[in-house]
Amino acid sequence: MTGRSNAGAEIIAAFTILAIAASGCSSTSSDGKPAATKQQSPGPGTERAAGKQRDKEVTVKTNTRPITVEGEVIDAWCYCSGVMGPGRGAEHEKCARLCVAGGVSAGILTDDGTVYIAAKHQAYKGCNGLLLPYVAKRVRATGWVAEKGGCRVLKISKVELAEKESSGKNSDKQPEPSGAEER
Fold first, then answer.
1. What's the rounded Cα separation, in Å, for the pair 98 and 27?
2. What residue ranges in 17-125 does DSSP mark as E strands?
């Protein structure tokens, strides 16, 4: 019986503490004015605009430069690791599609053997969905590249199928990519 009465006292003490804490909470401040309320979240358009502006500011301040690259869209793991043979070309297309659709990073393999990891498209969006239709195909991608520690990471602003014949050159002296506000 003493166990139950102790439990009852503990419950009463808990409710008392909650009541005291709740009495300190009020919708008015000590000077009688309404207390601050939670702000409404901005609409989806406002959030997107803020993301574009943040993206533009970050790109300008960092180790990036405009670039246009041409090459084959690959899944970076199979190509770089060699676990699936050469990891490129039409014979690897089915595997590469499954890998990229599953979340393995897509990349662009240029004629000189350079791999650009396609890391970003807009604000917080990756490139896999953007590049999935082009897996095992030759593309021309315009955007920005960042290089560090031997890794080349590409933020794509525009991608299109490339012509079959290639000059075999990548250029970093291109005019500012269209859609500069999305850097």
1. 54
2. 64-75, 106-110, 115-120
Structure tokens at 115: 């791999």
Burial 42-69 (b: 16+ CB within 10 A, else e): eeeeeeeeeebeebeeebeeeebebbbb
Tokens of 85: 């043979």
Gap between the Cα atoms of 116 and 149, Å rounded: 13
Q: Would you say how long the chain is, in residues?
A: 183
CA angle 45–48–52, rounded 5-degree value: 135
CB distance 159 to 139 below 8 Å: yes
Residue 14, judged by CB atoms within 10 A of its CB (0-12, 13-18, 19+), counts as exposed
Contact 136, 98 (CB under 8 A): no
Q: Which of 182, 149, 158 is nearest to 68 (CA)?
A: 158
For the residues 128-134, what does the mean pLDDT come to? Answer: 94
DSSP assignment of 153-176 equals: EEEEEEEEEPPSS-----BS-PPP
**pLDDT classification of 14: cutoffs 50, 70, 90:** low
Q: What is the pLDDT of residues 44-54, one digit of tens each?
A: 566 667 766 76
Runs of H (alpha helix) within 24-92:
44-61, 76-81
Task: Report the chain's mean pLDDT, rounded to a whole number.
Answer: 75
